[in-house]
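Example 3.2
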Amino acid sequence: MKRILIVKVTSLGDIVQALPVVADIKRAFPGVQVDWAADEAFAELLHWSMGVDRVLCAPLRRFKKARRWRDLKAIWASIAELRAYRYDYIVDIHGVYKSAIIAFLARSSRRIGYQSQDLGERGAAFAYTGRFGPRPQGNAWHGMRISAGEALGYQVDGPPVYNLRLPAPVTQPFAARSAPVAAFFHATSKDDKKWPLTHWVAVGRELSERGFHVVLPWGSAGEQAAAERIAAQVPGASVLPPMSVTEVAQMIDNCTLVVGTDTGFVHLAHALQKRTVMIFVATSPSHCGVEAPNRSTSIGDGRSVPSVSAALEAIEYVQASKPVPAMQDQSAA
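Structure, written as tokens:
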């Protein structure tokens, strides 16, 4: 086994949670090269991975929105890069048309994807020469590890290993602050996933009383307005300035605690081994949540709004003791 291509195109949280597949593969096949094909919007994250050898990307999402000629040319150019090597296996752990097309265009006689009932778009099946077993019940992130192991013939063993190394920040976030920092990721891509602002205020006030400095990142004018409403009612809270993806990641890495809804940056906080509480309102915590002993936990049932007391209990849990050390993957270093 010399070279493997993983296809997982979007989105931030999904790609973060798929990264342990790389460490699994490199443990099973020492010396193997692992490339990854994704949307250009998420290439930055993949470059932080110490296990991914080559990041292949194209502005698929941007072209879909703007239909600009320069983006189409970039997509065509990316096809040549995609076909620069022949792969022993292509493993599509996304399962939609765009990932299947990438798998089909890449050079390999072994292209593995999900069974039809497990695909996000059933037409994607055209690209595959082989299929994973039925998608395992339960946590989707562990399921991706199981599926990749089935495709390549190894057993998944041990906790997930993310192996992320962020670039050093130009200026150290919160360098002048002595108080521990808690980041609130209150914004979501869908309104039905939001936790009430009154709940954020209540938790923020409690953390402020415990000596935390609460910070609120945002990504749009609406999110900024919500952050300002929360900050106005939480003593000492700060609304952060506009930040790039890398800057948000560096900010997370300098936090003591991260609390947020089911969003990509909260998954990233978990991967960076921060003390993390993820709040589920309309999605399934058993399917998409984060859990690590004494460090990360998910609350909610995916059908109702978790209470403030449930969030505070979860914060107590992740703050209660020294976290269990994560397994380090020496093969990916």
